[in-house]
Design a protein that fits this description.
It is a single chain. With 351 residues, the chain is an alpha+beta fold. It has 3 domains: 65 residues, Roll (Structural Genomics Hypothetical 15.5 Kd Protein In mrcA-pckA Intergenic Region, Chain A), CATH 3.10.290.10; 83 residues, Pseudouridine synthase (2-Layer Sandwich); 148 residues, Pseudouridine synthase (2-Layer Sandwich), CATH 3.30.2350. The chain is built from 7 helices and 18 strands. Strands 7, 8, 9, 10, 11, 12, 15, 16, 17 and 18 form a 10-stranded mixed beta sheet that branches. A 4-stranded antiparallel beta sheet has the order 1-6-3-4. A two-stranded antiparallel sheet has the order 2-5. β3 and β4 form a beta hairpin. α1 crosses α2. It is globular, with a radius of gyration of 22 Å.
Amino acid sequence: MSDLNEHTEESGELFEHYRFVVDNGQAPLRIDKYLLAKLADASRNRVQHAAKAGNILVNEQPVKSNYKVRPRDIISIVLAYPPKDTEIYPEKIAVDIVYEDKDILVVNKEAGMVVHPGHGNFSGTLLNALVYYFQNTQENIAIDAKPYLAHRIDKDTTGILLIAKNELAQSKLAKQFFDHTIERTYLALVWGDVSQDEGAITGNIGRSVRDRTVMAIFDDEEVGRHAVTHYRVVERFGYVTLVECRLETGRTHQIRAHLKHIGHPLFNDAKYGGDQILKGTTFTKYKQFIQNCFSLMPRQALHAKSLGFVHPATRKPMHFDSEMPEDFQGVVNKWRKYTSSPLPTSPQGEE
């Protein structure tokens, strides 16, 4: 139960670690007390932290620790990684390590790399690579060091990712994520000309009732989890806009879902409809230009640019920044060149 209060971040999946169906004769009982009786190695503090982090679901909805269980309730404990029933095997895979000391490691993740094994990706992941690295590196590696995720980013999202090297460091970093004191900025290329130079998107995020692999925005405060994304326009290209996003909260697919909600899905984001031509002309030349961009960057245009936090051991502020990856920069350069000359005027009815 040491991982019960793991905080979920920008992941695409949640994994069920425990599941209970409440008996027909169960009297009303706080869920933290109910779980203490069911989980032999749990503590009330860990159960309550898990509830605060949204990891305890009743009938697929997050509940607070004072929720009173009812007969036939289905209780699930979900985390952002699979149950540890399989060993993570070391694999010799190159990883771009930006910073490392005895407590933390910061990497610049490339596109296409899954962070943690699971759902058909049991090899070739970042954790497979880090297990090998820890086993074959002496400097800054303690004997009992293991890679512990402090947060996650999606497979096809690039950029800065923070890894703890022991449970104490992970716990302290998780608390910062939970308290929203972590500073995170992302670069996103979105469809459309964003009307305001800056703003905030607020809306509860939960799994779509139509497609459980994507997230949706709910107006009902009882559905989903509170989420806030701040954005600022960096550069405009007429049909698309480059924006910087700052996360106040860290929910699954938060940026992708929030930007689609305001009508500006990420460029080439297949899950959220951004892999279609959503703005622009019907000219064949324009269509070919978009397909060339999609081919150059065959993923959603999202990059975790920077991360700021307090070091879990030294308590000193730390900040890391990363350059836009080559494929993303290439697409931005193409748009910059395309819009440097007057945008083509479409015949009537072809907008």
